[in-house]
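Can anyone check this?
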Amino acid sequence: MSNWLIFGLLANYICIAFVLIKWGNIRCTGITPLKTPVFMAILFTSGWEVGVIMLPLVDFPRYEDFINYPEYSFTNPLAMEFASMAFAIWSGYFITCFYFCVIEPKVRFFKIPLVNLINTIVIVITCSFTIYLFLINLPIYAPELGDGKSLNAIFYLIVFLVISAAVYSSTNIRYVKILSMTSTILFFLLISGMWIASFTIEKIAITQIFTSINLMSNYFLDLDKFLLPINLYHEFYLYWWFSWYIMIGQFLARFVGGIKTYQLFLMIMIIPSIPLGLWFSVIFIYYQNEISTVGAYNLCMIFVGTLFVINSLDSLIRLYTDNMNLTPKRLGQKKYIALNIFSLCLLTLMYNYDFLEIEWIGAIVVALFAACLIYIFTMKFNTVRKIDSSPVENETNFENRETIS
């Protein structure tokens, strides 16, 4: 499995370099181009999920345990967390977003029935993993609702309500945009609120945030060491991100609003990394100073994390139902909602009982990535070589995006 992941990562980096050299200055326009602030909000929240909020406090102890995990000794917990969730990790979103925006309309690899089916299954199963991750971390972040270790009926009810909200939200693109903007604003409020609380309520030095940011910046000094798997846990993260690459790229490509390829690359790589870096730096202050987050802090984190879950799920539900032509218009809203709630609940339980592993899904995505490259080289090489713009009809939509947005 490790070698397969390394192949996927190297192919990803090589494709990025090729795309930037050949198509770096062409304008990328999706079928539903949106203004840049709205696109950025969708980029933020579709590419994030609950792990961004909940996992750092779980990961930090592991990353500073150099006795049991000597492979982390070259870095620090903050840099390692950043490596697991930010910057280079997001490069896969760029290459797939560009592909679906510019190349796929000419190649139509993902319109092949078998490929479309496999891709759709990957999306559905990855959705359920997001829900499962949310479920198993709830006891840690909401000990008031249980013993802090095990699941109970309340947690399952919360997850059921989250699934229901996400499915309902997916029935209208307007809800996706509203949730994206709301989630982005609330995340920045969470970051600033917990930072302010650290020195006003918890009496930590106001300058400690700069110490945290400096620690995290070590990631860039050792960037080459983070590009490939460090150990099995890092491999888990990389496979997890790979499982998201195609579906998030496919979703984001719809909304790219006429920016150049190199600008899209910088936007995807840098802009989401800024709030992520700030969040990790703030929450590390609480970890380092052994400040308990039980109570109001956890409730705020859970609330924002829940919005992330709903926001990422509604985007993906909308995507896989469109791929399968199981839209609300075709099925009717009641059947659409019932079918998706039942399917996601069932798959979440399958993860809970170890019937599924996210690494398998990531490996399938690497296989799709490889199959697409082979298809292009053997069947569509000349077609791709001649591409010099986004589809003409998308450019027309771009001219009318004031109405669309």
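Reply from J.R.: I decoded it. The longest strand covers residues 257-260.
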